[in-house]
Design goal:
globular; mainly alpha; disordered N terminus
Length: 233
């Protein structure tokens, strides 16, 4: 998860594998399963929507584990270096795999350029996260990041279901527009990716710029002190 808030890293983190880390690993293990379900010809002749329902269930369960592992890690005091590394990696891999597969699975709703924008935003965040770490800061989860993840879940599941159903009858009277929900969600996902990426970059840059300015001032002060000491001698 991403955020615009930079905080100092915690020290003394344990490196052992624990329950939250195992849950994170299950999210990574679900990625090839999801791709296989959406790509295998085993369901080609099925007209019952078995493939779409199974793929949606796998993606939803995998996405839910993102909140579970973080909650357990904080509650049990089991925040580890491995977890800090694996959690964002699992998120990025899951989203990238889902949208890349959807380009082939439902190209009418997810053209390649949309996948590039959404996945590119994830790479941008990962790059800024690495720079923040090198500067001595970590990036915490924000409300915008959590909302983005919710929209991602809705958009992916809706696009998967829209491959089989255009509408769902509800109580025989109302109709749930699966296709239009998927279309709206995926376009909103693209817009949110662009806005959040810009917001993230601006907030990150302002913090890094302030940090660099403090370092320049400190260096200038130290150089002046050294010059004064030399003159005194």
């Amino acid at each position: 998860m991403e955020d615009n808030h930079l905080t100092a890293p915690r020290h003394g983190l344990k490196h052992r594998v624990n329950l939250p880390n195992y849950i994170t690993l299950t999210r990574i293990a679900a990625i090839p399963l999801l791709m296989w379900i959406l790509g295998t010809p085993r369901f080609a002749a099925e007209r019952t929507g078995e493939r779409e329902l199974l793929a949606s269930a796998v993606f939803i369960v995998a996405s839910i584990t993102d909140g579970i592992d973080g909650y357990l890690a904080r509650r049990r005091g089991q925040i580890t270096t491995m977890g800090i590394l694996l959690d964002p990696l699992a998120d990025k891999l899951l989203i990238a795999a889902a949208f890349i597969t959807l380009v082939q699975f439902n190209p009418a709703l997810v053209p390649a350029w949309m996948a590039v924008v959404i996945i590119g935003r994830e790479f941008l965040v990962s790059g800024l996260r690495s720079i923040a770490a090198s500067e001595g800061f970590t990036i915490q989860a924000s409300e915008l990041g959590k909302f983005k993840m919710l929209v991602q879940i809705i958009s992916v599941v809706a696009v998967i279901l829209a491959r089989r159903w255009h509408d769902w009858p509800v109580y025989g009277v109302y109709v749930f527009p699966v296709h239009w929900v998927a279309w709206t969600a995926i376009w909103f996902m693209v817009l949110l990716s662009l806005v959040s990426a810009f917001d993230y970059f601006v907030a990150f840059w302002s913090r890094i710029d302030r940090t660099s300015e403090k370092r320049r001032r400190r260096s200038f002060i130290l150089s002046r002190r050294r010059k004064s000491d030399v003159q005194a001698v």
